[in-house]
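#onboarding

Welcome to the new folks! Below is a worked example of what a typical request in this channel looks like: someone posts a single protein sequence, and someone else replies with the predicted structure as tokens. Don't worry about understanding the tokens yet, we'll cover that in week two.

Example request:
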Amino acid sequence: MHDLWRTAVRTLERAGVPRSVAMKLTGHKSDSIYRRYAIVSESDLADGVKKLETLLKSDLSEPRKVVYMTGRRSS
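Example response:
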């Protein structure tokens, strides 16, 4: 049974399912118990780094919109 939970949690995490939803689906009532089954592998870490690099590269290439707040209301 524990292997089934571990597989389900890992699959849900990789699919990007929000933790609160995954916990309902797997029947875990506390975050600490859920995390016991959320095993992170080396490939998971490598994927995370790649995603972060992609985000940072796209963030740097897109122009920023600057909004100035004057503190005054327009009438």
